[in-house]
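ARCHIVE ENTRY
Sequence with per-residue tokens
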Amino acid sequence: MRRGISTGRMQTVVLFMLAGFIVVAFRAQYLSVTVADEHLARGAWRTVSVVDVEGPRGGIVDRDGRPLAESVLAYSLILDPRHFFLHERDRLPALERIVAGRGRLDPDRLAAWATAEVASLPRSFIVERQVPPIEAEQLMADLRAERVSALYLMPEYRRVYPQRTLAGHTVGFTQHLGGQGLAGMERTFDADLQGRRLSWTVERDISRRPFLRDEAPDLASAAGHTVVLTLDIPLQRHVERELARTVAEYEAESGVVIVSRPGTGEILAMASWPPVDPNRGQREPQDAWLHPAVARVYEPGSTAKSFTFAMAFERSIIDHDTEIDTANGRLRVGGHWVRDIRREPSLPAWRAMALSSNIASLRIGMEIPAADFRAGLVDFGFGARPGTGLPGESAGLLRRTPWRDIEHANIAFGHGYAASPLQLHMATAAIANGGVRMRPWLVRSVVDTAGEPVHEFGPETAVRVVSREAAEQTTRTLIAATRGDGTGVRAAIPGFAVAGKTGTGELFNPETGQYEEDVLASFAGFAPAESPEVVVTVQILRPNRDIGYFGGVVAAPLFSRVTAEALRTLGVFPDPPAADPSAAGRPPSRDGAIAGTAEPPDQPAPSDADVLDQLAEGQGPVVFDAPRPRGSMRVPDLLGLPAWQAVARATDEGWDVELEGAGRVASQQPPPGERTPEPGTLVLLLTGDHDSPQGAAPESRAEVGP
């Protein structure tokens, strides 16, 4: 029996259908009338949303605003393959034309995508990164003309280092194209350099992919802060060029040069070789980014004798002319022998510094109690990080007391502890600054996009190390080291008094517990000596011994060239010449005068003729025997050197010497530069001219043995 549909149920169905029709009608009315203009304006397939983007990373500049690191606007060209082959497949020829020769999208890849299942295709493929803005504008025009919406551009920033390797270790680099800082100041000031997040209204297509509108967001307004360094780019460039020249000339492994102002601690240049290029950031080994000036440590060697003398002057253990027993150049300490090259029974303090006597330095150093000596070195900055903010700073090595006698002796002439080049530099600067050690100052300020300071930094005093009087007395002895027959005479600068100390330290190998034949050639000093404006430290690691390795030969000339340029940069020029030209070669006197008018010392340095008279007593040729080093070597160039210096240098390198005549070396056999299987006998023919300017004497080196 069939049952009919109830009237009530039929009415319910009709009501629901009517309600649905009414809703659809109202929606159609809204879309076709109320918002029709908006949809026509931007296309029904578009939507508008808000996204957050990050502003560019702030810059790093030198003291005058010259850029060392900056972020430049660029674009990424991105393709949505799934959307393209689903909705725009017919525009494949246009796509191929637009991307031809660009980035990573080659014809083979497109052909493979064209035959693949659309659902298996990626939603985003980066065709090319770092598209310059001018090219991006042309690409946008092409995309609009060809109606290719699946290919679009997104703004980004690229981190660039316009000075390339210049100050590379100091500047550092970032992750990828401008992300987190990974080395140097990029890492230290990462939080300040990071760009701020900025909200940006973007348009999206039906697949919710954002694309660039006609007007790009003003991301520059969200840029990070700028870090202003104390470095001077032109001076830094000069220093790096001269350092590279010296490293190449002496076939050295590496080198460091630091330039600063003693009164402020302001670092004007801090160069290292070999260089690193921040533009190649992550391609370099990670440890290559540690700045050698702050991260690597060595025994300071003879450059540290100035600190021993300063502490001795402070405690009135010596004065300028105090006669120091130098034991004829050979002294036994704690079962070990310490030697000087010059075999003098005694030397006045100023001359002991000039000739870099190990024995004189240990004599006065051991007069200072070990605990006080160590405390003095700590005041000079040894055993603590300098505080530049650069990653990887080392505190060096400074053993605690008590010390054995041989330890005390070694430390007194610069061995038995280790320091970074910057620690040595700031300690030298303390003497130049009248006994006050400043903290190294590498960052002047951090400023916002309007140039207003966010953080400001300035000179900061660390501690008074010695009195002004002790610093001045030390300075006078350091001037003697750069004049006459001092070890640092090649550091001299015409028109200026220069104070400084050489160092030739044999490198200690902790694995073997022995010293190597390779050396660290150093020079640390300042100018003008009477009113220091600039301090310069030079260290050249492992120069070729066959070419030259003494600090006075390798490092001192580089110091002279760098310091002269630094003084010119600062606008410091020499005074007119002194009335008495002969005064320029005199060592400073005990009365404190350090200009060219100083009175001769009570015990002047002997002339070449005096030395020869004492050695040979006029009895024909004089023969000097020397110990034999291992391996072949080049014949040293002794032409023009005074007799005593030629003998000292030749015998130190293992040659026997036969002298004929008196004065300076006029000729030699074998000739300079000739390579021989092993050192033999050098015959030196001497001629007159005892009063001409003398070359640098090689500094004393320690020989420690049973």
Summary: The two ends are 129 Å apart (CA to CA). The domain at 608-687 is CATH 3.30.10 (Trypsin Inhibitor V; Chain A).
